[in-house]
TrEMBL record:
Annotated active site: 193
Name used for this protein in its record: Ribose-phosphate pyrophosphokinase
Binding site residues for D-ribose 5-phosphate: 195, 219, 223-227
Species the sequence originates in: Mucispirillum schaedleri ASF457
Subcellular location: Cytoplasm
Length: 314
């Protein structure tokens, strides 16, 4: 294959899974730091005239991982690569996608500008927190979906039936949960969380029939797991038999693991868009791989073939 795949330090295990599926090896590159912490990159093989793909999600430490991606891009550009595609399964700073209050930045737009300015020709990402981020770029952006790997998990575990309900943990995730419910042919429920006044405890209203049902909470990411675990309690209080959770991006920062451990959630299913191999022994966590979807997208992009079927989760 006349293209190369390189990886930064953010998620090498995913990059290795991708090249394994393609029957390739990772491109030779040294990505390290100077003694003062500045990032140092050296591409250790010729890339002249070749299509290059750089696997580098920008999860925490977001600043360092983003800088690694841009420095690698600059090195590849100066080494005369034909095209450079950034494979960013997790797009950091995506939650700051609009000015939600006065005098705040739109950081997702700033990061988009930085990536394009560094020399990236195309971005491939997965389950963007806000779809409009695609429009922040002046270069092509392919936003793929982890839905197929979750669908296979659901089928393999006999969860695609009328005894199971797809649940959005908040009003903001309804559109996402509806896509899953429609794809799986399952009913949908929504949790509406609100306060009746200042310093008043939150009230969780469940919209939909969940009594006697298995519930699966659907979200794009799990950060501190606060919303998720609160939603699970509300579902059980309203008669759910069990609660599982599915999210593409397992950020799992701060108290997330402790909260999940002590929660009523049976299982949390995430993907490997973020490297969580340190948690492989955590029994409540199951990690599915999106390497197959990304490998297919890389091959099709290089061959100038359509990847639109990957957008719809087919």
């Amino acid at each position: 294959m006349d293209f190369l795949i390189f990886s930064g330090n953010s998620n090498k295990s995913l990059a290795e899974s991708i090249v394994s599926r393609l029957g390739m090896r990772l491109g030779a590159a040294t990505v390290s730091k100077f003694s003062d912490g500045e990032i140092m990159v050296k591409i250790d093989e010729s890339v002249r005239g070749r299509d290059v793909f750089v696997v580098q999600p920008t999860n925490a430490p977001s600043d360092s991982n983003l800088m690694e991606l841009m420095v690698m891009t600059d090195a590849l550009k100066r080494a005369s690569a034909n095209t450079i595609t950034a494979i960013m399964p997790y797009f950091g700073y995506s939650r700051q996608d609009r000015a939600s209050e006065p005098r705040v930045p739109i950081t997702a737009k700033l990061v988009s500008n930085l990536i394009a300015t560094s020399g990236v020709d195309r971005v491939v990402t997965m389950d963007l927190h806000a779809g409009q981020i695609q429009g922040f770029f002046d270069i092509p952006v392919d936003n793929l979906y982890a839905l197929p790997v979750f669908y296979k998990y659901m089928q393999d575990n006999n969860l695609c039936n009328d005894d199971t309900v797809i649940v959005s943990p908040d009003a903001g995730g309804v559109a996402r949960a509806r896509i899953y419910a429609k794809k799986f042919g399952m009913p949908l429920a929504i949790i509406d969380k609100r306060r009746s006044g200042p310093n008043v405890a939150k009230v969780m209203h469940v919209i939909g029939e969940i009594a006697g049902k298995k519930c699966i909470l659907i979200d794009d990411m799990i950060d501190t797991a606060g919303t998720l675990t609160e939603a699970a309690v509300a579902l059980m209080e309203h008669g759910a038999v069990s609660v599982k959770a599915m999210a593409t991006h397992g950020i799992l920062s701060g108290p997330a693991i402790d909260r999940i451990s002590s929660s009523v959630i049976e299982k949390v299913i995430i993907t490997d868009t973020i490297d969580n191999t340190r948690l492989k022994d955590f029994t409540k966590l199951q990690i599915l791989s999106v390497a197959g979807i990304l490998a297919t997208s890389i091959e099709r992009i290089h061959n100038k073939e359509s990847i639109s079927s990957l957008f719809t989760g087919n």
